[in-house]
Design a protein that fits this description.
The complex is a heterodimer of chains A (294) and B (325). Chain A has helices at 14-27, 44-48, 51-60, 76-87, 101-104, 120-129, 142-151, 174-178, 227-232, 247-258, 264-274; strands at 2-5, 32-35, 64-68, 92-95, 109-111, 131-135, 156-169, 197-200, 206-211, 214-222, 237-240, 280-281. Chain A is of the alpha/beta class. Chain A has a single domain (2-164, 220-276), classed as Aldolase class I (TIM Barrel, Alpha-Beta Barrel), CATH 3.20.20. The chains are: A alpha/beta (294), B alpha/beta (325). Chains A and B meet through helix 4, helix 5, helix 6, helix 7 and strand 7 of A and helix 4, helix 5, helix 7, strand 10 and strand 11 of B.
C-alpha cells in the first residue's frame, strides 16, 4: 500500500513551507506528494517562487508529485490559474474541482478528496476521463470505498487517513470575518494560525477548525488501526494531511504499520505523542458521526 | 423569468401552481432527493398525478434526484430517473456525475438540469456539464454575487437558475460534510442536513441550549426565541470571542434584486423550502408572482422584501451583494 502526503492546507510562511517539503523529500517514507495552494488563491503568489525547487527536490527523491488544483474556483484570475495548471506537463494534476475536467479530459490525472465520487458509476466515469488515482471524499464509509475499488481496479483508490478532515469550503473567509476584515483586504491573518483556528462550542467543547475559507474538523483522522480493513477493501493508498507537527514522524509511523514492523496500538500511541492534545477520529469510515473514534 | 416553487406534498404542489408558479420542483419519498424528511415528498403515483395536474394548468414539474447514489445501490437512483421520465417530468435535477451520464445515455431527449449540489460555480465547470451531458440549465450556488452571476450567464451556453428566497447555505453546496461530522447523516448521502433526529433542546438557568449530535450549537437567553440548530448557523466560541462565526441566522430574500437578476439574463428563479407547509408556499409564491409581474411591466415600484416569512424575521441579500468582499 502506498502512502501519500496531501497538500499543506494552512497558510505557512513561505520559507517554512519550502523547508517542510525539503525535509519530506529527504526523510519521509511517502510515495506520492501533492503540492500547491488549494484553499485560497490569494495565498498562491507567496509559494510560487519556491514551487519549482520543491517539485524538483521531491521528484529527485523518487516521489511522485501531484499538483493540486484550487477547491473553489470563481474569479476570472482563478479560472485562468486553473487552466494553466491543467496545461502543465511533468507532473500529474490533482483535480479538486470539476473546472479542471474539460481542459484535462483524456490526459492522465488524479482526483482529490474535494470531488464528489460516492459510487462505482461515478468512479468509472472519472477513470474513463483519465483519472489514474482517486482520493475519495472523507465522509465516505469503507463499504462504499470497497465497491468503488473493485469497480475500477486500474485506478489507485486513496483514503484520507491522517489529519484534520476538510469538511466545507465557502466563498466567504471566516478568518477575515473573525478579524472584522473584508476578504479583499484580509491582511493574510490566517498566517497567524499555522494549524488552523480552534472553534469550540459555547460549552468550550472542541469542535471545528477554521482555515480561511475552509472549515475542518477539530479531531484528527487516524486510520492506523484500520489498515487491515482498508487493505481488504482494496484501498491502494493512504493520505496523510499535513498538520503543524512532525509529519516525517507521522509518515514513518504509518509506514512501520504497513510494513508489519509495528502494531496499530503502539503506532496510535506514537501518533498521540507526535500530535498531542488533539482527539482522534475514524467515524466516517464506519458510517458513524465523523468525530467518533472506535 | 420562470418562477420555480418547492413542493413537499401534493397539496403544496397544487397550492404553488394555483398561486402562480410557472414550475414546481419535488422529489420521491426516499434518499434519492436532498430533502429526505419523514412524511415529505412524493410516491410514484402522487408524482404522476401531480404532473398531470401541472400540465393541465400549463405548469411544469422538475424532479430533483439530487443526492449522490450509494455505492452498490446505484440502480435505486437509476430507477428514480426512469420513473420520473415515464411520468413525463419536464426536467430532472441531478447532482451525481455518474447519474447524469446515465440520463444522457438512457434518456437522451430528457431535459437535464445541473443541481446546485453539483457545485458548478463558474463557466468552465458549467461548460463541462453542457458538453458532456447536454445539460440545459444549471442551478447556481448561493456563493456568487449578482455581478458574478451576470458574467457566468453571459459566458454560458445553457440557462441559469438562482435561488431568491428561503434557507441559505453559507458553504458551497454539495461540498459540505459538517452535518455528517456531527451526526453521521449528510446532505450528499442521506439528503438531510442537521437532521431533527439528532437535535435536542435543554432548558437551564442560562436559557435554552440547542444541540446537534451532542454538540452545543446555540444558547438562547430566556426572552430570546430559540432557533433550529442548523450547524453552520450556530453560535460558537473562538479566541476572538463568542458569536455567529459562519453566518447570522438569516434567510435569503432577493426580492429587491429581481430587476438586476432579470438584466443579468437569468432564466429562472427558485424558492427554497420543500419542507415548508402549504400556507407558507402559497404566500411566498404569491409575493414573488406579484413582484415578477410588476417587473415584467417595467416597473420596480412597490418591490419590498418578505420579512414575516424569513428566519428570525431577518433576511439577507446573501452573497448576491458581497458586503464582506
Amino acid at each position: 500500500m502506498q502512502l501519500s502526503l496531501g497538500p499543506v492546507l494552512y497558510n505557512w510562511a513561505p520559507d517554512r513551507w519550502r523547508d517542510f517539503y525539503f525535509r519530506i523529500a529527504d526523510e519521509a517514507p511517502v510515495d506520492v506528494v501533492s503540492v500547491g495552494e488549494v484553499v485560497c488563491s490569494k495565498r498562491s503568489p507567496f509559494f510560487a517562487e519556491h514551487l519549482p525547487d520543491v517539485i524538483e527536490r521531491l521528484q529527485r527523491a523518487g516521489k511522485q508529485v501531484l499538483l493540486g488544483s484550487l477547491i473553489l474556483v470563481s474569479l476570472r484570475r482563478e479560472r485562468r490559474q486553473t487552466e494553466e495548471l491543467c496545461a502543465s506537463d511533468g507532473a500529474l494534476v490533482e483535480v479538486n474541482d470539476l473546472t479542471c475536467l474539460r481542459p484535462i479530459k483524456g490526459r492522465p490525472h488524479a482526483i482529490g478528496p474535494y470531488v464528489n465520487i460516492y459510487n462505482e458509476t461515478s468512479a468509472a466515469f472519472h477513470v474513463r476521463q483519465g483519472a489514474a488515482r482517486i482520493c475519495l471524499p472523507p465522509e465516505l464509509p469503507i463499504s462504499s470505498a470497497a465497491v468503488i475499488a473493485a469497480a475500477v481496479p486500474q485506478a489507485v483508490i486513496e483514503i484520507f487517513a491522517f489529519g484534520r478532515v476538510p469538511l466545507a469550503i465557502s466563498a466567504r473567509c471566516y478568518h477575515a470575518r473573525l478579524h472584522k476584515l473584508s476578504k479583499d483586504n484580509c491582511r493574510f491573518v490566517c498566517e497567524k494560525d499555522p494549524d488552523g483556528l480552534a472553534l469550540k462550542t459555547l460549552d468550550q467543547q472542541e469542535f471545528l477548525t477554521i482555515n480561511g475559507v475552509q472549515t475542518l474538523s477539530h479531531a484528527c483522522t487516524n486510520l492506523v488501526g484500520d489498515v487491515a480493513a482498508l487493505r481488504e477493501a482494496g484501498i491502494g493508498s493512504l493520505r496523510l494531511s499535513p498538520q503543524d507537527c512532525d509529519m516525517v514522524g507521522v509518515a514513518r509511523t504509518f509506514r512501520d504499520v504497513l510494513d508489519g514492523r509495528n502494531s496499530a496500538e503502539s503506532a496510535s500511541r506514537r501518533l498521540s505523542d507526535l500530535y498531542p492534545g488533539v482527539a482522534f477520529a475514524n467515524g466516517f469510515l464506519r458510517g458513524k458521526p465523523g468525530f467518533s473514534f472506535a | 423569468m420562470e418562477l420555480i416553487c418547492p413542493a413537499g406534498t401534493p397539496a403544496a404542489l397544487r397550492s404553488a401552481i394555483d398561486a402562480g408558479a410557472d414550475a414546481v420542483y419535488c422529489g420521491f419519498n426516499d434518499e434519492t432527493n436532498a430533502r429526505n424528511f419523514p412524511g415529505l415528498n412524493f410516491s410514484r403515483d402522487e408524482l404522476r398525478n401531480g404532473i398531470a395536474f401541472a400540465h393541465g394548468r400549463g405548469a411544469r414539474i422538475l424532479v430533483a434526484i439530487n443526492t449522490f447514489p450509494r455505492a452498490s445501490s446505484v440502480t435505486l437512483w437509476q430507477r428514480a430517473v426512469d420513473d420520473a421520465v415515464d411520468a413525463r417530468a419536464d426536467a430532472l435535477i441531478v447532482a451525481d456525475i455518474g447519474l447524469m451520464d446515465y440520463v444522457a445515455k438512457r434518456h437522451p431527449g430528457q431535459r437535464l438540469h445541473v443541481s446546485v449540489q453539483a457545485a458548478a460555480a463558474n463557466p468552465d465547470a458549467i461548460a463541462f456539464y453542457v458538453e458532456m451531458f447536454g445539460a440545459r440549465r444549471v442551478v447556481l450556488p448561493r456563493v456568487l454575487s449578482v455581478a458574478e452571476i451576470a458574467e457566468i450567464t453571459r459566458e454560458t451556453a445553457c440557462e441559469t437558475e438562482v435561488f431568491v428566497f428561503g434557507g441559505l447555505c453559507v458553504m458551497a453546496e454539495g461540498r459540505c460534510s459538517l452535518s455528517s461530522y456531527a451526526t453521521g447523516k449528510s446532505p450528499n448521502m442521506q439528503g438531510v442536513c442537521s437532521p431533527a433526529s439528532h437535535v435536542a433542546y435543554e432548558e437551564t438557568a442560562l436559557g435554552t441550549t440547542s444541540r446537534l449530535g451532542g454538540f452545543t450549537i446555540n444558547r438562547f437567553a430566556p426572552q430570546e426565541a430559540a432557533g433550529y440548530p442548523t450547524l453552520c448557523k450556530g453560535r460558537f466560541s473562538t479566541a476572538h470571542g463568542d458569536g455567529y462565526v459562519f453566518e447570522d441566522p438569516v434567510s435569503l430574500d432577493a426580492t429587491t434584486l429581481l430587476g438586476g437578476l432579470r438584466s443579468a439574463g437569468i432564466a429562472a428563479l427558485k424558492i427554497e423550502g420543500r419542507q415548508r407547509g402549504r400556507a407558507y408556499i402559497e404566500s411566498v409564491v404569491r409575493h414573488f408572482r406579484r413582484a415578477l409581474d410588476t417587473i415584467e411591466q417595467g416597473s420596480e415600484a412597490d418591490i419590498v422584501s418578505l420579512r414575516p416569512f424569513t428566519e428570525g424575521q431577518a433576511s439577507t441579500l446573501g452573497a448576491y451583494r458581497k458586503t464582506w468582499r
